[in-house]
Amino acid sequence: MSARFRPEDRIRKQTDFDRVYRARIYAADDVLIINGQANGLARSRLGLSVSRKVGGAVVRNRWKRLIREAFRLSRDSLPVGIDFVVRPQKEAVAAFEPIRRSLVALAARIARRVEREKPDVREEKSKMKDQTN
Fold it and tell me: What is the topology classification, in CATH, of domain 7-132?
């Protein structure tokens, strides 16, 4: 897998952000807050939401660069097929290593929750069978 962060690795459309937020699947720690939702693709995508509450433009852009770099370098450790929307915590400090550790740990928690939320295929088939009888 390429280590590049390509346009197809990003969430850009508001409808995609809204879909992730509507799913209400999230995990947080003292560094990041991550929302997630299955995307049905063969790769995970990253969306960033860094508000002015975090700081001025320089601080916000630093957060975005560090989160993108953590995503890019940790891609092998991240679950596949999930859209992640990442936000920094209000009082957190922008440092690469804590962001990378937090991203990997929270993404794993999101993946477990997304897996739990998926309807079981067997249950779907049995419901369909019951409806036909």
Answer: Ribosomal Protein S5; domain 2 (3.30.230)
